[in-house]
Amino acid sequence: MPGSVPKPAIPVIEANHLTKRYGSKLAVHDLSFQVYGGKVTGFLGPNGAGKTTALKVILGLLSPSSGTATVYGQEYKQLDTPLAVVGAVIENPPFHPARKARDSLKISAACMGFSYTRIDEVLNLVGLYDVAKSRVKTFSFGMRQRLSLAAALMGNPPILILDEPANGLDPQGIHWLRQFLRSYVSGGNTVFISSHVLAEIAQLVDDVVVISQGRLVAQAPVGELLSRTTTSLRVTSPQIDKLVKVLEPFGVNIEVLAQQTVLVTGKDEGINALKVGQLAADNGIVLSELVEQRSSLEDVFLDLTSSLPTKRFSQ
Amino acid sequence: MKFQRLMRSEFVKFKSTRSFFVLLGAFLVMMWLVAFLLALGIAFMIALGTSVNGSVVAVTPKLVQTFLISDTFWMVFLVLFGITVMAGEYRHNTVSMSLLLVPKRWQLLITKAVTSFLLGAVVMLIGVLGSLMIWFSMGKKSYSTWNTWIKAIFSSRVGLEVLILILAAGLLGVIGVGLGSLITNQLGATVLVLAWWFIIENIISAIPRTAPAGKWLPYHAFMSFIGAGNLFGNSTHSTIFSFLPQWDGALVLFGYAVVFLSAGLFVVTHKDV
Ligand SMILES: Nc1ncnc2c1ncn2[C@@H]1O[C@H](COP(=O)(O)OP(=O)(O)OP(=O)(O)O)[C@@H](O)[C@H]1O
Ligand SMILES: [Mg+2]
Which ipTM did the prediction report? Predict the structure, then answer.
């Protein structure tokens, strides 16, 4: 029900063994995940991973081949005035090109029983107020995306499901969207937002659901993914054996690259160039090379999503 | 969800794009153009004092009925209108937005059927009133004032025929919605209906082997319902002009509306968008 914020333990959106085939093509495979209230949850995966497919199943636009998708424990179809419960931005903004922006939103307002003043509010919010009377075909891609957002916000819903909403937005637009979504969830609302770029939404999200080739590869708080980032140090020393002995107690992974060179890899907090330099100095070890390489969140993402065989786009 | 809201939402869709006005406008223009040509012919006959079966030609309610039934070719636009109401949403992908708003798909389809019925009926009412005006102005000699003219029309059986015409027009809109849901490719559905209306159905009714089925086909059922059978009777030997009794025609046309709408409903509820 709109307005009534569920207890944190109960997922707001839930996919349960969701499978969707297009003919023989398996787009989503036995996918289960939960999205909790009061948070921004990122939905990540490379192109063709099945994000749009899964979101459309949740929104009742596609019927699942098997499994279920629920919002507040109900199918989207069972919701009364659904767009007042779940606001959605879907791929390819669904507006008639010859219709004026304001008229496009009138359709939603009329259907939900809102007064048309709400249209001006949301148009203002997304910065389209001045072009409200222009036909959608005169809009740029980013403007259409903003109109999509306006339509999603129309019903002031407690849940937002956004399929790559930042697509086509300019830097100001993206900045605004981030801030807006952060303040939106601070009041107990829920945002489920897809992206194929982790870095793009890393600062925004609390949790992430990562899929690849239709399967779940990770569901975790974003902090946990951050802690999976690693630091690697390339160290060369004439006394390399002595250095290895000194480093071993720190639980790092040591790979021999050459006779006097090793690659030391460890968790971010565990190891860094400063620390190794200090240890070497303390133990009277001469270093002839010390190079630090940090893996990024993006590397974690790539690592997660490439654990499956190399992706090929096929029918 | 409140049905009233769904209706309002559909009317907003209707009002905010030109394509619907173009279709309905085209219908009215063609209807009135033919009405004008018919009136012109009669005006000539009146001017020449032509007499048919011994009496001088005049614009009578009976003649109006004949005119109305003869001027139905363009009602195919009402079917095309219905098709656009549904298939147009698939064409522009606005169907996703509509289904986000109304995820119970049967509700969307029923609303569209009802709106198309109402709009088809209203446009037909406008069309008939316009035609009556044209015929009145061309046949002034028969009736002195618009009031006496309208009174004469609606106190005769023609009044009933006009009401039937309006109902039948609404049903054509519903059939269009059904077709547009069944064949969601707007262009495909449009071409098919035009071919059927102007060519295929006539061929079927003309070929001796298939001719007996002709009067059961949609356009013939429509013509039967609006009284073509009473008009043409069995005076002609052409099978194209053989019709069902009026109320049988009503049932058959209604049956087509139900069948197309149900089939469309099946497709729309099972189709991914
Ligand atoms: N209508 C369709 N018919 C057949 N296959 C489809 C259809 N839609 C999507 N697919 C396939 O399903 C898979 C998942 O597609 P989907 O659009 O859900 O991916 P995505 O994660 O949203 O990708 P992107 O980041 O590019 O938006 C892809 O392999 C795609 O080819
Ligand atoms: Mg996608």
Answer: 0.87
